[in-house]
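Subgroup meeting minutes
Present: P.N., E.W., G.H.
Scribe: E.W.

1. P.N. recapped why we're keeping a running log of single-chain structure predictions: easier to compare across weeks, and new members can see raw inputs and outputs side by side.
2. G.H. added today's entry (213 aa).
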Amino acid sequence: MPQFYPYITILLISFLAGITNLGILSKADRLICLLLFLTILQESIAYYMRIKYHNNFVTFHIYTPIEVSIIILYFCQSINFRRKKLIAIVLISVSVFFSIINTIFFQHYNTFNSYFLLYEGCVVILLSLLSFFRLLLRDDIVPSKMAQFWLSMCFLIYWSLAFVDLGLFSVQISRTQTLARIFTWVLYSSNLLFYAGVGAVFFFYKKLTPSGE
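Output recorded in log:
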């Protein structure tokens, strides 16, 4: 897969930009750095399994509940909920439970777990919108100077595109190969845009107010 190399390159550059600023990253933003590291690991394993076994869906069944858990922790840290620990525990528990139920009863580990990804999209979009709402309520900050604003924007744009794409992909993949290719490339481009955006936030991090502050 030639498209793997530009994708993993952007991931690595974004991760290195985060590591470079590790000493000044807030607790919330360090979670994004952790997310990048785990994504690099996941995508590398998935690439190997696709070449070796021609099926890597099991890696996504394992990784996606971890991914959404880290994203939930990020938003709970950056938004500063009053009972953020309880909210994080409840949301993560529900997510992991749904992932397990989906894998056991609906979409086996050797198939694409699109149902869970659609659920993840809903969760992340709602948290992103809540993040914007809480930022706009504050009169002591300029939202565009906040790392939280730009990271929330990256999440919102990516998952809005992915949400629509995954929904259409689930419906159309069995009908026409051409549409399946189009949806796959839209999702791939969305990933490139997302990780490039996160990398840009880390690259200009010293000029921004860290998330949660």
